[in-house]
Amino acid sequence: MRGAIFKIEKDFDKEIRNFLKKTIVKKFFGAILIPCKVPANDSYAYLLIRDEALIEKASILPPVMPIQGGRVLKSFTRLGKIDAKVAVIMRPCEIRASIELSKLEQVDLTNVTLISVDCPGVIPLSDYLEDPVKGTDTFKEAFKTWESDSVRELCKVCYNFTLTGSDLHIGILGSEQGNLFLIPVSEKGRNLLDFFNINYENDISSWENIVKKKEDERKIKRKEFRENLRQEIEGIDNLLKTFSDCLNCHNCMRVCPICYCRQCFFDSDALNLPSTNYIKRAENRGSIKFPPETLLFHLGRMSHMITSCVSCGSCEDACPVSLPISRVFSFVAENVQNLFNYVPGMSVKDPVPTITYEEEELKEFENPYIETYNIQRM
Amino acid sequence: MSKTLYIDENVNDGIKKFLRCILENGKVKGVLTLINEGEKIAYSLISNPELIKYTVPLYPIMPLNAARSLSHITLSEPISEPIAVVIKPCEIRAFIELVKRSQGSVENIFFISFTCGGVYPIKMNVNGKINEKIDNFWRLIEKNEIDADLRASCKVCKEFIPYNTDMTIFLAGNKEINNQCRIFLNTDRAEDFAESTDGNIVQDKINTELIDELKVKRLEERKKLFEDKKIEKLGLEGLIDIFGRCISCHACGNACPICYCSLCYFDSQESEYKPVDYESELEKRGAIRVPPNTVTYQVGRLIHVGISCVGCGCCEDVCPSEIQLSTIFIKGSESIQEKFNYIPGKNPEELIPISTFDIKEFPEVET
Amino acid sequence: MEENFEPRLVGFMCRWCTYQAADLAGTSRMKYPSNLIPIKVLCSSRVDPLWVLIAFMRGADGVLVAGCHPGDCHYQEGNYHTRRRFVLVKNVFDSLGLESERLRLSWISASEGRKFVEVTSEFIKNIKEKGPNPAKKAIFL
Which of A65, A221, A302, A369 gives a 20 to 30 Å CA spacing to A28? Predict the structure, then answer.
């Protein structure tokens, strides 16, 4: 792989901000979509910026991810594209969610140049809000070590923290050495660098090596995480116990970038059954939780979106009773996605497994009855 | 003077005894109340009288406003069998407001509530943490004090005496909760149910001294909170500061019992920005937050539900960004409700002010 | 206060009364400033309180809701509801410290072309003195 190398003084954030300002001034991009600090300085929100002076407030890699970038891009492009090229700077999981949404016709990437950044993880929102100043420091530590215990649970075991299906990737791993790497992935990325006469034919193996080492470490961690989690949640009793604090508030669904249905099936009339249903169920079992269908909601939502789950962890951040939702969903997502050899968000060209098929496939799931019970055919 | 049922147990065991009785003798087919299952507390519809011993009807926890779930099951038709529900006063008021909007029916529901000492934020229900707090909570009830760890909305609640119940358990304002279970019988049905159990029914007076004292304390907290937060001085800048960390998840609307629209305006396509909207906003302002409509959603929701807001505080509890929503909504809705002289959920026959009018009123509003 | 600030106002006008009054003002060649954008509605009660809020948040310096005099509504009761809704919106604005002076309700019948001109001119003058709506330039809205 080849890329561009920027020499940086100190702050990669500043370097990228200056570059983005240039792209506006030189009219390459008509607008930038990037997280910025909010007026009260206690969180970050995505701004669509045309006035390059406002880019000063932006942050390439904020310590928190209050809104998943996929949701932001969906709001921005679902009803069409604006008449200008837009640069969008997001974390890899947000890029992957956006690409998935593009396949689901919720995001229009035509005029969008996706720029991703190496990501050490994000601080859980409630931890950050308790003390934003401390949260920022914690994130700085996480950025130094890439081994932090203070990031989201899923971030700790994520190995998709780098190059993904974006147009341009900013490699910041190892940036303490004074180097920043810009790696064009698609034609859009190359066009951008060409416009500014940036040479992207350099050897970037110093970055690649650090990344590979980190990916391998994380893959080991993930294996351990999967094994521990499997024991914790396997079986109906464990599942019920895991979700017993659930309030049915549906926050997890609301913040999930992939869950784009205007009215979720589980909020619809389909589950507003007449009261006789609940009374009968209460009679049969002695009692039912009220409102019922907790596990139905989670497993049902899983069956609807799991092929595209990008393991971002927004669901767990939003849960008011701290259920391990993102861990359960990520665990199942990996199982299901492996079944179809599918990695969500790597390329718009990979169709979502449930919208496509091969005529001959998955034979092992057919006719289990005959083989399992060794039925003699007549 | 009213009829009161005395059960010779402490208040918690007494109500459980009563609930078990009316299930066993068939007065009701089910009981909806809080149940403690292995340190997890949730609302349950209970049919088996044996399970009543695990219930904790008076625990200071409100997973989600029960009015919401009651509305869902009585939306198309009233409940098919008589059930008893033990819920907080604000949940009953919210349900009455929903019934006024044709979103439910009170038929066949036996309403039991209590003079409410408030609930803890839902985070207290995680991993059974509430069990560490609960003894202190009963002690504070006996001392008629307000626990500082309660929901902000509960600390300032002045409608903690329920309306429209069949029975009201004397909890907050009762020094003797450890020695007696005292239940006020407000309807004929309540008397009938009470007679079917063992317990003493007497005609007696209620000493409201402690209740009045508690109301004064709550009103003081309310005044302090509003003076502290100065909602009416917020203005656009203040609102932008507070809602800077809003993530537009609309969980508050989803948790609110009054927000019953199956598709909120702010979730619908109508409120989505088209490319031309983004372009014009970019042109005007130089930058625009995405997704947009953050503050607009909050003020819009206040405009839509303010008239019926019961101050339960569920919105603040589910907010992932821990925004002090209930303070803003309680202040805003108090202002609207005072203007129309309306207490939501108090009188089921009273029309919601925004659905009716007087021929001559508010002459000052026209300019 | 900006010099040369030209307010942009939005006016929701009922088609049976106020819109006709506006037409009458036009045909009678009455002069008045052109800062008000008219939006015709069938009845003032068609105006969802949200529209007033959204107009304000999208940057309108003032919002006018106008219809028939109470008792004269073409649909009998519409404007009674309008009145209550307007009271509600104004109340919400006041309790949050938003500038409720930027919202106005007026009863203008079809023959009151002169009143339409007066109400509109006065409103525009007031808003000019007040200055632009802060929501116009807000970014984190």
Answer: A65
Structure tokens at A138: 């914690």
CA atoms of B116 and B146, how far apart (whole Å): 11
Q: What span, in angstroms and rounded, lies between the C-alpha atoms of B290 and A86?
A: 13
Q: How far lies A70's CA from each of A118, A314, B85, in Å?
A: 17, 11, 42
Interface of C with A in 81-140 (CB under 8 A): 139-140
**Check: complex ipTM more than 0.90:** yes
CB-based contacts of B334, cutoff 8 Å, min separation 6: none
Q: Which residues of C touch B236 (CB under 8 A)?
A: 98, 134-135, 138
Structure tokens at A308: 């595209």
For tokens 């391998």, the residue is A216
On whether any CB of chain C is under 8 Å from the CB of B57, the answer is no
Residue C40, classed as helix, strand or coil, is: strand
Residue to mutate among A36, A259, A287, A323, with most B CBs inside 10 A, is A287
Give CA separation, A215 vs A118, A120, A161, A344, B24, in Å: 12, 11, 8, 18, 62
Instruction: Report cis status (omega within 30 of 0) of the bond before A353.
Output: no
Instruction: Provide, as residue numbers in chain C, all residues whose Cβ is less than 8 Å from the Cβ of A54.
Output: 139
**Of B44, B77, B241, which is closest to A39 when you measure between CB atoms?**
B241
* A51 interaction partners in chain B (CB closer than 8 Å): 286-287
8 Å CB contact of A79 and B272:
yes
B232:C96 CB<8 A: yes
- A99 neighbors A165 (Cβ within 8 angstroms): yes
Q: Tell me the chain A residues in contact with residue B283 when contact means C-beta distances shorter than 8 Å.
A: 50
Taking CA–CA distances from B250, the nearest residue in chain A reads A254
Q: In chain C, what are the domains? A: 9-135 (3.40.50)
- Between CA B73 and CA B321 the distance in angstroms is 31
What SS3 state is found at A10? coil
What is this structure's pTM? 0.94
CB–CB of B344/B310 below 8 Å? Answer: yes
Sign of CA dihedral B65, A254, B240, C66: negative
How many C-beta atoms surround the C-beta of residue A347 within 10 A? Answer: 12
Partner-chain contact C97 B235, CB within 8 Å: yes
**What are the chain B neighbours of A280 within 8 Å (beta carbons)?**
none
Q: What are phi and psi of A313, to 5 degrees?
A: 90, 10
Residue that the structure tokens 């909570």 belong to = B137
Cis amide bond preceding C38, omega within 30: no
Compute the CA torsion angle A328, A329, A330, A333 (nearest 10 deg): 130
- Using the Cβ of A206 and the Cβ atoms of chain B, whether some distance falls under 8 Å is answered with no
Radius of gyration over every alpha carbon of chain A, rounded to an integer in angstroms: 23
Distance in Å, alpha carbon of C27 to nearest chain B alpha carbon: 24
Distance of CA B86 to the CA centre of its chain: 12
List the beta strands (DSSP E) in chain B: 2-7, 30-37, 40-46, 83-86, 109-114, 167-169, 181-185, 200-204, 287-289
Q: Going residue by residue through chain A (378 aa), what tens digit of pLDDT does each one get?
A: 899 998 888 788 999 999 999 999 999 999 999 999 999 999 999 999 999 999 999 999 999 999 999 999 999 999 999 999 999 999 999 999 999 999 999 999 999 999 999 999 999 999 999 999 999 999 999 988 888 999 999 999 999 999 989 999 999 987 777 889 999 999 999 999 999 999 999 999 989 999 999 999 999 999 999 999 999 999 999 999 899 889 999 999 999 999 999 999 999 888 888 889 999 999 999 999 988 889 999 999 999 999 999 999 999 999 999 999 999 999 999 999 999 999 999 999 999 999 899 898 888 777 666 666 666 665
Q: Are A131 and A101 in contact (CB under 8 A)?
A: no
Chain position carrying tokens 């049969």: A284
